[in-house]
């Protein structure tokens, strides 16, 4: 290892051996925090080893003790906690965190809620582009879209509720360009971009030969899809003529009998760890949030001081500087610098041109600094 050593080989081995998975209700507990402090130490030691060209001993320990699955499960559990538990925690009336980290997390949660709507709408555009290539998708991806998630029926629900449109003060507004915009009366019959994305996605999913062969038109699916006929007005068909084919498909669907559920055998990757954690904790999110409110987010003053002291010991300044050393910046333009003033050895520059331009400011101090060094 390099000159700076955070963990001895024996210490690293012990820390890796002790890695374990924590249930969701224990996230943020003393044991969980201690493990993540240890993980941070292992991470910093791994960076130091790599910097000193000492191989990858930390990675070898993780593989030897079979702890990679533990780390993966921990990452998934943290993500599930953020999605399932933390929003519930923020809604509890008694949630008044006393230390800055949870407060920071609450603010992030508020920002996430504001961003979620816009991100979801952008996902519609991504979905539409995926459906453009529906005939070339893998069988597992197509099965997940049509059978697992039943996207055609979900898209019908979107068209029915149209979350990107609303009435505000008697005026029609649509969400475009990251904000709500009032639609002029003369433009209200015009097809919005998001409506168009949904219609094209439906067209691709229902009329593509590969998708039609895989999609099971059960009685429920038939009932949902036939709702589309009410939306296929002459005005809409004039703006998106390809929907005439979809109109013909729906007319034919109305006269056909529903299909029995298909029982095709499809092998696909499934989120095994996520589904197991969700199954184990389903219906317990409120209880987990209340437990953590009492045992994690209501620390005593002594606990806060102890936690601050432990974090200070983990994130030592000399280690952080070794892990991410500060690079010299040009005194004139602030770019990364590799050249230093040869006279005073104090200022750094990225090029000769910047050094010349900065001489007006640096000249006097440079002479004084050089004289002072000679006097010493």
UniProtKB/TrEMBL annotation:
It holds the Pfam family zf-MYND. GO terms for biological process: inner dynein arm assembly; motile cilium assembly; outer dynein arm assembly. It comes from the Eukaryota. GO terms for cellular component: apical plasma membrane; centriolar satellite; dynein axonemal particle. The keyword Nucleotide-binding does not apply. Keywords: Cell membrane, Cytoplasm, Cytoskeleton, Membrane, Metal-binding, Zinc, Zinc-finger. It is found in: Apical cell membrane; Cytoplasm, Cytoskeleton, Microtubule organizing center, Centrosome, Centriolar satellite; Dynein axonemal particle. PROSITE patterns: ZF_MYND_2. Residues 330-366 form the MYND-type domain. Plays a role in axonemal structure organization and motility. Involved in axonemal pre-assembly of inner and outer dynein arms (IDA and ODA, respectively) for proper axoneme building for cilia motility. May act by indirectly regulating transcription of dynein proteins. Interacts (via C-terminus) with DNAAF11 (via CS domain); this interaction stabilizes DNAAF11 at the protein level. Interacts (via C-terminus) with DNAL1; this interaction stabilizes DNAL1 at the protein level. Interacts with DNAAF4, HSPA8, IQUB, RUVBL2 and DYNTL5. Belongs to the ZMYND10 family. This is Zinc finger MYND domain-containing protein 10. It comes from Rousettus aegyptiacus.
């Amino acid at each position: 290892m390099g000159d700076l050593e955070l963990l001895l080989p024996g210490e690293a081995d012990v820390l890796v051996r002790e890695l374990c998975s924590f249930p969701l209700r224990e996230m943020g507990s003393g044991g969980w925090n201690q493990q993540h402090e240890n993980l941070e130490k292992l991470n910093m030691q791994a960076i130091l080893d790599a910097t000193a060209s000492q191989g990858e001993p930390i990675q070898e320990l993780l593989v030897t003790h079979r702890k990679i699955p533990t780390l993966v499960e921990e990452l998934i559990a943290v993500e599930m906690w953020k999605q399932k538990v933390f929003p519930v925690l923020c809604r509890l009336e008694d949630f008044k965190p006393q230390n800055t980290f949870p407060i920071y997390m609450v603010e992030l949660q508020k920002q996430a809620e504001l961003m979620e709507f816009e991100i979801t709408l952008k996902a519609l555009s991504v979905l539409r582009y995926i459906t453009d290539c529906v005939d070339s998708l893998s069988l597992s991806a197509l099965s997940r879209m049509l059978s697992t998630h039943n996207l055609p029926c979900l898209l019908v629900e979107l068209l029915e509720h149209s979350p990107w449109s609303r009435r505000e003060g008697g005026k029609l507004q649509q969400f475009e360009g990251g904000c709500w915009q009032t639609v002029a009366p003369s433009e209200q019959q015009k097809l919005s971009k998001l409506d168009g994305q949904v219609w094209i996605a439906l067209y691709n999913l229902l009329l593509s030969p590969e998708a039609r062969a895989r999609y099971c038109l059960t009685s429920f699916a038939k009932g949902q899809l036939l709702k589309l006929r009410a939306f296929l007005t002459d005005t809409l068909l004039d703006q998106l003529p390809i929907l005439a084919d979809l109109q013909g498909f729906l007319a034919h669907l109305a006269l056909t009998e529903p299909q029995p559920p298909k029982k095709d055998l499809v092998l696909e990757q499934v989120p095994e760890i996520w589904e197991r954690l969700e199954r184990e904790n389903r219906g317990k999110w409120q209880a987990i949030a209340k437990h953590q409110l009492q045992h994690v987010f209501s620390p005593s003053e002594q606990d806060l001081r102890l936690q601050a002291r432990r974090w200070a010991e983990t994130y030592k300044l000399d280690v952080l500087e070794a892990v991410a050393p500060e690079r010299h910046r040009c005194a004139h333009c602030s770019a990364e610098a590799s050249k230093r003033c040869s006279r005073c050895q104090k200022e750094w520059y990225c090029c000769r041109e910047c050094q010349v331009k900065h001489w007006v400011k640096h000249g006097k101090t440079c002479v004084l600094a050089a004289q002072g060094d000679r006097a010493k």
